[in-house]
Amino acid sequence: MFTENYLRLLEINLKMSNFLCCTPFSFDVIKKRVTRVSSVRKIRFFKFQCLIALLYCITLLTNLCFGPLTILQKFQGFPLFALYTGEVVLWWNFDLDPTYMQIINPFLSLEQTKLRGAGPSHCATRTKRMEQFIRLLAISMVLVPTLQLVLLQNRPCTPPYIMSMFSECDGNNITFKPFHLAVAVIETWMALYITVGATQSSNFAFFAPIECLLTYLEILKGKILKSHTPQEICDSIQLYRAIFTLEKTMNKILQYRMVPAMIIFPPAIQIMTQYVSIKLHSEIPMPGFLVYPILWMDCVICSVLIFSISAGVNTESERPAINEDKTGPNSWK
User: Transmembrane region positions (predicted)?
Assistant: First the structure.
């Protein structure tokens, strides 16, 4: 259930995102709803950061395609470029589209009305795994930029970052140390707000909602099995319609950007980080090297957990209607 398992995490993430100005949304603790940020200054700074992030990804792409990098350096830099590009795709909201609110608020509303008092799902293990995965991503969204800063302090010319664009880059030159540090801090700041914004969007507009949808369908299954009177059957049908509408709304909102991004970028990052971890582990200093296995682990869990639950939602969402049409409410056994 979203309110029980994910709402507190959502509040914490939105507070951090508002501090970094990487989201146009906030959480109203009185109404228990996601609302748009009222501060004009924060909105303007958020849009400015969107443009800077887009320019940063274009710069990294230009460096990988036309910069003075060897093939191995391009392989090393590609996972980080794919990470930031995928995150910008997930996070981008320059026109202040209310999509984020349109996904989360209906879940909260449904749980406060038709699912009030429904009780916890019998499949608590899956919910616990999703909650742990979201917490893991919350740790990674801070840990990865931190390790990036450490890596750039030791190797400022690491691809695909900005200093690697210059063929005369020398990380051992003491004269340019302050300049290298300044560039590293700026890139770490960009990595932090991009990662925090994208992680928040994917966690609470995609990962948590699909797990909640599967939980709702399991609750609906239980209600159908226990429906005997006309009123109970009518209540089950109304709940099914509400869940069906919620699912279709999610599909329509996510199918053009978030779902394609989740299909393309995590597998690509997983493949390349695995290659770098095996082939280039001796050339990348610790602890900056840990960025690659951390990203690999996140992508593997994402591919297994998220796509498994998504497939479950697709399968289970059609069963109530099929069974109702064929033999009545007590046929789903």
Answer: 51-71, 77-94, 136-154, 174-196, 258-278, 290-313
